[in-house]
Structures are given as structure tokens and as C-alpha cells.
Design brief:
The protein is about 50% helix and about 30% strand. It has four helices and eight strands. The strands form two sheets. The chain has a six-stranded mixed beta sheet. A hairpin with a 2-residue loop joins strand 7 and strand 8.
Length: about 210
């Protein structure tokens, strides 16, 4: 029987302990070590998850601010651009040409209703200044912004011509919105389009 025992010392006394008891003790220790390892792994996993969630939250907050700022800037820019177009109609009605042309870029282009009317600012001023102006009242307007560029289209009502349309581009220049191109046209209802275009063709042949 002594062959199946292990000896160990307790306070200077040698005690014989069965081998199967030693093996059970070792297995218990191994189980406890495995449990401790698993607990450590789970704790580390929870800690990493918390850190990742915290990082995502901070990242989301950091991204929110520029987006909100961009939206605010966009709204402010579009309001400023709309005011430029409102003043354009006001100054043309008043024939206040100094203020009117100050709303354009120096390299601006005006495209009139006649096919021949594609004018730079010098040509357009030469045409406009001798006149008493023209009146176009806003009915509807749309603005689309791409950075420092705003595209617009608007429906207008003219006492002389009825429904009219203005389209064009504004560019932020030295911190202010300036008109780079303005195109005035007369929308033709589909029902009479062929009739009108036939008259235009006939007029062009004369």
C-alpha cells in the first residue's frame, strides 16, 4: 500500500497521503485555474467592448458638430443668395443700375430672351443704362448649393410678358454671393409649343 501513497511534510511530520487524493487536488487546482482564466478573459472582453463603445460615441459626437455646422452655413448662404436675387429684381425695377450691376461678378454673363443676347457686363450695361428698367416679381424659387457655388431657378411674373423664368449661378466671391450667370426666358406651354416655335422659325427666316 505504501507504493500507492505520496509522502509530504506538515510541520516537520511526514504524512503518507494516497495518490488518488493528490490527483484530485491537482485536478481541482487545474479547474480553478481554468475558471480564473475564463473570468479574466470575460472581464477583458467586457472592458474592450466598453472602450470601443465609448470611442464610437466620441466619434459620433465629433462627427455631429461639423454636420450641424455645415447645415447652418448652408442655410445662411442660401438666405444670403436669395437676398441677392431679390435685390436684383428690386434694382432692375428701380433702374438703379449702379447697385444692380454691383450684384454681378465682373466676369458675369447675362443671357436674355433673344438668341443673340449673350452679354458680358460691359455689353449688358450698355443695353441697360439707357432704359427705365424692367419689373419681374418672384413667384417661386429653388436653390441648390455645392460649396461656394449656388445654382438657382425661379419663376417670375412680368407685367409686360407674364410668366417668365430666371436661371443661373451665384459664386461666393470675397465672402459675398455674386451672380456669375443669369438667364431669362419665357416658358412655353406644351399645348402651344409647336405654334410658337413655328412663328420663331418664320421670324428667323425674315
Amino acid at each position: 500500500m505504501l507504493k500507492d501513497t505520496h509522502a509530504f511534510a506538515v510541520k516537520g511530520t511526514t504524512v503518507n497521503r494516497p495518490a488518488n487524493m493528490c490527483r484530485a487536488t491537482k485536478a481541482s487546482r487545474a479547474t480553478n485555474a481554468s475558471r480564473a482564466t475564463n473570468i479574466i478573459r470575460i472581464s477583458l472582453g467586457l472592458l474592450l467592448s466598453a472602450l470601443m463603445l465609448g470611442g464610437l460615441n466620441v466619434s459620433a459626437q465629433a462627427q455631429d458638430s461639423p454636420t450641424q455646422s455645415a447645415q447652418t452655413t448652408s442655410s445662411s448662404d442660401q438666405q444670403a443668395a436669395a437676398q441677392v436675387l431679390d435685390l436684383l429684381n428690386q434694382y432692375s425695377s428701380d433702374a438703379d443700375w449702379d447697385k444692380y450691376f454691383a450684384l454681378y461678378r465682373k466676369d458675369g454673363i447675362f443671357i436674355g430672351t433673344d438668341a443673340s443676347e449673350r452679354w458680358g457686363m460691359a455689353e449688358f450695361e450698355h443695353y441697360s443704362r439707357p432704359t427705365k428698367g424692367w419689373r419681374y416679381d418672384l413667384t417661386e424659387r429653388h436653390l441648390i448649393q455645392h460649396g461656394d457655388v449656388i445654382l438657382f431657378d425661379e419663376l417670375l411674373n412680368s407685367p409686360a410678358y407674364g410668366v417668365s423664368r430666371g436661371t443661373g449661378t451665384l459664386i461666393k466671391t470675397d465672402g459675398n454671393w455674386k451672380i456669375a450667370q443669369y438667364h431669362l426666358s419665357f416658358p412655353i406651354p406644351n399645348e402651344i409649343a409647336k405654334q410658337i416655335t413655328a412663328e420663331i422659325k418664320a421670324a428667323n427666316k425674315q
